[in-house]
Amino acid sequence: MGFEVAHAAFIQNHLNRRNGERRGRLERGHRHGEKLFCQNIWWELKGSFDALHPEYEVTDWRGKSYFADFAYKVPGSRVTLIWEIKGFNSHVKEMDRNKFCMECKRELYLEALGFRVISIAYDDLENNPGLIVSLIRMLLSQYEMSQTPCKPVVFEENEAIRLAVKLSRPIRPKDVEDHFEINHRTAVRILKSLYEKGCLLPVSRGRNVRIVQYELTRAGMDSLWQK
């Protein structure tokens, strides 16, 4: 099944299950930007629209309905990700201070309820979808890892790379020890394995050229994007 057929069936399925304003909102709100997200991002990532909900209704702190562009209820998890497509004109150029404050409060409220809110620029959907797909793949891997069989050693290495990214400095065995709550020897093994795979470069110190920390390489970063 190609994208156009799958997308039409996806929208029609949700229309059939809705009535009143919820149906009207989907008919009016699912426009070019939303379809571009479906085609350039979600279809590329998943090849289907399972668990994705267009024009997803939530109630804000005032008790009023708000419709997010998309919600993704992660299978096997309680996590729901909210996706917002933001065009420059509607979300920046034409936004006054009051609308800006309302949007910030709404996103904070959704986060407080336990949703994860992710904003994506419309221009990136058109001009840089490959990078957005890679970044979203990184994000989803935090929640969907349990859905894909993964050997413990692979999990450890993936998490060590994530830790190296978060540190924004060379990673040390001590960092890995504290993160995983493991012994020094195991931490060194994980870092050495990543070095042998080209994901890390050793940083030596002292006359004995003792390796005490590692720098993340571009290959290491790319491997995380491709998970």
Topology:
Blueprint: H1 3-16, H2 20-29, H3 32-46, E1 52-59, E2 65-73, E3 80-86, H4 88-93, H5 97-113, E4 116-121, H6 122-127, H7 129-144, H8 152-167, H9 173-180, H10 184-196, E5 200-205, E6 210-216, H11 218-225
Parallel strand pairs: 3-4
Antiparallel strand pairs: 1-2, 2-3, 5-6
Q: Span from first to last CA?
A: 25 Å
Strand order within the widest sheet?
1-2-3-4
Q: Can you give the helix content as a percent range?
A: 55-70%
Query: Strand portion, in percent?
Result: 15-25%
Account of the 3D structure:
- By secondary structure, the chain is α+β, with helices and mostly antiparallel strands.
- The chain has two domains: 3-146; 149-225, Winged helix-like DNA-binding domain superfamily/Winged helix DNA-binding domain (Arc Repressor Mutant, subunit A, Orthogonal Bundle).
- Helices cover 57% and strands 19% of the residues.
- It is built from eleven helices and six strands.
- It has helices spanning 3-16, 20-29, 32-46, 88-93, 97-113, 122-127, 129-144, 152-167, 173-180, 184-196, 218-225; strands at 52-59, 65-73, 80-86, 116-121, 200-205, 210-216.
- A four-stranded mixed sheet has the order 1-2-3-4, with helices on both faces. The protein has a two-stranded antiparallel sheet with strand order 5-6.
- Strand 5 (200-205) and strand 6 (210-216) form a beta hairpin.
- It is elongated.
- The relative contact order is 0.09.
- The mean pLDDT is 87.
